[in-house]
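Field reference: sequence -> structure
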Amino acid sequence: MNIEGFREGNLIKVYPEGHQEGLLAIKEVFGSSFICEMISPRPGYLFRTKHSEMNAIPLTEDWLLYAGYLKEEGDGVWTDDLGTVSFLWSGNKGTFQNHDSQPVGYVHEFQNEYERLTGERIYFAI
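Structure field:
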């Protein structure tokens, strides 16, 4: 997996050898590993994970809901509760509207692109 797109604050899945899989938030980025905070199943647990154990989370409608976006009627457009930036979802990828947006298909890409366009981090209510 290309880990160059991962940065502090991104959500990932991890399948560590001999440990329980989990949903994590990246806290610190190092050359060969990341320090992460577990979101589930053991919230708050900090540990170091290798790049080989990290997995991107596919973006889904559920993740858009967790990000505070709501689906508009019929046209695939999702809007956030603040009206900051709309997102056009096509079922497996999407782009932010009215901006020079790059297509995204994973949660970390969604986070990174949102921050690039708005200057703000997006948080997920999980």
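Note: The mean pLDDT is 87.
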